[in-house]
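Extended Data, panel c. Modelled sequence:
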Amino acid sequence: MKRLKTLFALSLLLIAFNSCQKNEVTPVFDETTLSQQETQAELVLAEVDLLVDEALDLNYGFLKSANIESSVYLNDCPVITVNRTASPQVMTIDFGTSCTGKDGKIRSGKIIVISTAFNTFPSVRTKSFDNFSVDGKKIAGSVVKTISKDQENNIRTAQIQEDITISFPDAGGTAKRIANLTRQYQRNTLANREDNQVVSWGTVEFTRVSGVKVTKTITAEKPLVFKAACHHIVSGIVSFTTSNNRSWTIDYGNGDCDNKATLTIGDKTKEIVIR
């Protein structure tokens, strides 16, 4: 009898152990975490765009006021090289092993930009990354931009194709982002880079660290607006959908410089903080 009791107890432990293993490998679907990961990806790529623009201004003299002192992101830390005689032209921004920008973020590795011409429009640019990371998030892949310019209003508009992977060390994995976007770069006051903003709309397919795939849609009527002054998305609405028909929206507000947004699932809403 004692032996039977022992075998019964061992069987219960084995069942409990297997049950725990199954629970551990089942991915948890969390709209808040996914929204935060994708927003972080959006922020990183918008900042890379503005950072590259600063480097081009410094090296091509697009703005008479362009200098390190007036920059929002760049300081003396990265080494910027431009090959104007190559065809296509190449610019490399090398952050070395650790470079803290004016925005307080730590970058390392290289951003490599290739263009048919940096100083004329329309033009095509391709960005790639060599062991590049921002605050521990490693960025890999490529971004292709076809750029036109509205000279009168000082607005550049780009058609963008992104094929990017981003590692999230705190989540223990890598997310993938494939995007087809229209992005406007608006310089409201030429002498003030903090007045710059990036306006984006289009579609993004995002596969988060857990493997969950979602599609996000941003309309031209309610685009995402990223302000250089506060390093945040300050307005716009994003609609998320999954292959199994789960859906929700994120509203980034009405222009206030904060890291808050409103998550809506069905008839329920809550405020979230973008880390």
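The CA atoms of residues 94 and 110 lie 4 Å apart. This feature is highlighted in the accompanying rendering.
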